[in-house]
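Run RNA-directed DNA polymerase through structure prediction, thanks.
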Amino acid sequence: MSLPSSLTKWTPSLVTPPDPLCPIVGIKSPKSLARILGYPLSQLEELCGNIESNYHKKEITKKNGAVRVLSVPSGALRKVQTAILRQLQKHPLHPAAYGAVQRRCHIDNAKRHAAAPYVYCLDFSSFFPSISSNRIYKLLAEQLGCSPPVSNILTKLTTYKYKLPTGSPTSPVLTNILCFPLDNRLNSLACDYGLTYTRFIDDLTFSGRRIPEGFIRKTKEIITSFGLLLNDEKEELFTPYKGKLVTGINVNTNKVRVSRYYKKSVRAQKHQFGLFKDYMTDSEKSKEESRIDGKEQYIRLVQRR
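Sure, done. The structure for RNA-directed DNA polymerase is below.
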């Protein structure tokens, strides 16, 4: 289904948000929402009625060879979601949240656990798809205090097939706000045991001098009570005599660094490129050189942190 002509070209208007912290909090009128986002209400309503036609599928291959299917917003919907994202990013998050947080990255997340004797890692299972549109509606209506009409519009604009889409720019920030109570409980539990806790989207990490069995049991109980499932295959307890990785970063010492495996893979890629570059087209050589250069820059970036 093609978009109405009124949705093919968007011209955001300049607005003055009523709340300098997070303007979306407490919105009661759909017209106020439209004004804050910078789009006419009629266009938002038309878009809500054409949600499915504004997504496309994209497949990416994960490190283990499995294929992940993303639902990616297109055109007008992506622009509106970006406008929603800009407003939601102003909402305060728990200090333990590091993923999709401005001026924070996975390296900062890993540094919180550098040189810890024990590191315990957990991972949510199918995180975004496990968050239903009903849960997002409740988040907006109850946690953010939006009116039912506003919550309904925002829910339609940020969910796809009754769940959070993997591939939407608003999904990470919505889960960060949603998980504030969870982060609070897990952080309090970690403090009780003298541990450090961080969460990078769906990766949870705890570290300290020891990780008792009782702590692990209580952690899982809290997560289950929050309505989330864990990926048992990614649960791992790193001991003092085992190499430790947190969000892909080596945290064995006070100085974080990329893993040996990553450095080795980059060296192998450079070696292969040297062997076969004479058989590549100029375009292929340029792309491969850019890939290698990007990886080497990433290694230097981690080393500087």
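Residues 120 and 237 are 4 Å apart (CA to CA).
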